[in-house]
Amino acid sequence: MPEKPASVSWLWTQVLTCWKNLTAMSICLIIFALALLLDYMKRRKKCGRCPPGPAPLPFIGNILWFNRKNPSESFRQVEKIFGPIFLVQAGWQNFVIINGFKLTKEALGSKAEDFIERPALPLIFLLGRTKKYEGIILATSHNGWREQKRFCVSTLKTFGMGKKTLEKKVCEEAWYLCSELKSKEGSPFDPKISIFNATGNIISTLAFGDRFEYHDETFLKLIHSTEEILKDLTRMVPEIVFARSWFSYLPGPHQKIKKHYDNFTAVLKIMVDEHKKTRDPTFPRDLIDAFLEEIEKAKGNPETSFGEENLIHLMIDLFAAGTDTTSVTLLWGLLKMILYPEVQKRVQEEIDMVIGRIKSPTMEDQSKLPYTNAVIHEIQRYADIAPTTIPYMTYRDTEVANFVIPKATVVICHLSSVLKDETMWEKPHDFYPEHFLDANGKFIKREAFLPFSAGRRACTGEQLAKTELFIFFTTLLQHFTFCIPENCPKPTEERIYAVTVTPAPFQLCAIPR
């Protein structure tokens, strides 16, 4: 008889335990159902005329289809299904991807004002940039960006962009580069460091007032920090584009970017302090002096973007962007020359006939060298080093291809699809300099040639980059024949997707002519 109450007690305990477990499970199911409902409400389209796109997964959206090793291929695959404009989602953020020359021209041409803002990428917060001081490349405020762009364009012109003075400096640096290559004495080497140093010195001349010796300690710190920042950014591209602002506060490998950024900042602050001690307000020597003068003029204006903090951000933007893009394009150019020796020979013959081997090339020679000019343009088109634009954010509701893109939507233009648009280029997937030559061998401009993007946010240093590419490339081909080292395998044309698309590391020999 005494066992019965014990059995009843045990049974009652089991019933209560099951009820508690069932209640916990029910609560979890209810919470999950509410989360799914919230997810659906967050991601449902806000209009019936939004671009089509793949169905997103709950909470994560379409992140899984993104191929970080080849993002262009991801866009191409979705374009085949949904057309040249489509919508994808990362979390609860909508992204509209625009493909092809026709739609890119519509968005960044006649409707450029609608795409003037930038979204607040986590990178801004990670690097300590505030809404007021964002530099120029990632600036989200179009007012601050306009102010900084006006300053950059006018100051770069003051210090020679588009003028003989800058051409002379590029020519001088090209000679230093040639001396560096001659020191290799025809032995195999990787040209990356030499090219990076040369292009870095052009930005240094404009920003700091002088060039550096290639082995200067300060210069090496700047170059090393730049390379490390770009390398770390490469590993984090999807997170930097798709994540939200809170991402910057989490621990993880992305914090290494901040470490290298701080190292770069420390070197620049020393230079700025030296400029403050030695500058003459009536005679600015370089971009730092000019910016310090603008800070003085803007004192008392709470809305200005001119502050010492922004000077540092601007300098890093110019140094990183101006060095990396030009050097990577030149690397692709040298790779193409060793893979297409017949093209290299024809370029050299034209240079020999028009300029000779003593006189330094200048921009005046560009029109006299149609084939060389065509080869440089085809290198840019084929290399396609910036496959997408930096993300835009719509300033207001707008339409592209009769689809509505609501205000504050993030928009990315797929520039690869423009430079390799099959409706615009005869041989879009081949290296074909004749794309830029008419039947009489004269150079022709092509409407779909947009390596520097277009619209209000197009590359500020486009003219500088064109000058560097022409003078560096022509000078190198004037003085050297580049070839694959003996007993070495033929280099591949593998594309490594980073902040810019670089060729896989390769070696060559530079044989003096």
Short summary:
This protein has 513 residues and is α+β, with helices and mostly antiparallel strands. It has helices at 3-43, 71-82, 101-110, 122-126, 142-158, 164-182, 192-208, 217-235, 237-242, 255-278, 287-297, 308-339, 341-354, 370-383, 416-419, 462-479, and strands spanning 85-90, 93-99, 392-393, 398-400, 403-405, 410-414, 480-483, 495-497, 501-503, 509-512. It has a domain at 123-378 and 422-512: Orthogonal Bundle (Cytochrome p450).
Structure description:
InterPro entries: Cyt_P450 (IPR001128), Cyt_P450_E_grp-I (IPR002401), Cyt_P450_E_grp-I_CYP2D-like (IPR008069), Cyt_P450_sf (IPR036396), Cytochrome_P450_fam2 (IPR050182). The chain crosses the membrane at residues 22-41. Pfam families: p450. Its cofactor is heme. This protein has 513 residues and is α+β, with helices and mostly antiparallel strands. The protein is 51% helix and 8% strand. It has helices at 3-43, 71-82, 101-110, 122-126, 142-158, 164-182, 192-208, 217-235, 237-242, 255-278, 287-297, 308-339, 341-354, 370-383, 416-419, 462-479, and strands spanning 85-90, 93-99, 392-393, 398-400, 403-405, 410-414, 480-483, 495-497, 501-503, 509-512. The chain has a four-stranded mixed sheet with strand order 1-2-6-3, sandwiched between helices.
